[in-house]
Design goal:
The structure is a single chain. The chain is of the alpha+beta class. It has one domain (9-95, 105-121). The protein is built from four helices and three strands. The protein has a three-stranded antiparallel beta sheet with strand order 1-2-3. β1 and β2 form a beta hairpin. This is HNH nuclease domain-containing protein.
């Protein structure tokens, strides 16, 4: 996939908004299994505590429309790898805090592109 080419049908995963938010923040991942379209639901302690997650350990992805397939398993595996690294390294909480601070802040990026983003991107 090329940069800017993320809006592809195989990069779409529909879910309830609270799960979508947690998925985007790596609060849970879908780890591949040996069965096609079946994933292990791995929940991290950072997930929303007010959301009732499925009790099943495994999730099977399906498509309700035969014209469209399910999400690309390579993309889901990459997402799971990133989530596992973030949590194993202890960086998940720091990144979550930085993202929260960024969302709460006034716009800090100059429209002309002159903002020095090195401090924004540093997690050390």
């Amino acid at each position: 996939m090329m940069l800017g080419d993320v809006n592809r049908e195989d990069n779409i995963l529909m879910m309830v908004s609270v799960f979508h938010e947690d998925f985007g923040k790596f609060h849970f991942v879908l780890e591949p299994t040996t069965v096609q379209n079946r994933y292990r639901l791995k929940k991290f302690p950072t997930r929303s505590q007010f959301v009732v997650y499925p009790t099943d350990e495994f999730i099977t992805l399906t498509s309700n429309d035969p014209r469209f397939g399910v999400a690309n398993p390579e993309f889901l595996a990459l997402h799971a790898t990133i989530g596992n690294i973030l949590h194993a390294s202890g960086r998940a909480k720091l990144i979550e805090k930085l993202l929260g601070d960024f969302e709460d802040a006034d716009p800090i990026l100059a429209k002309d592109g002159s903002t020095d983003v090195s401090n924004l991107l540093s997690v050390s």
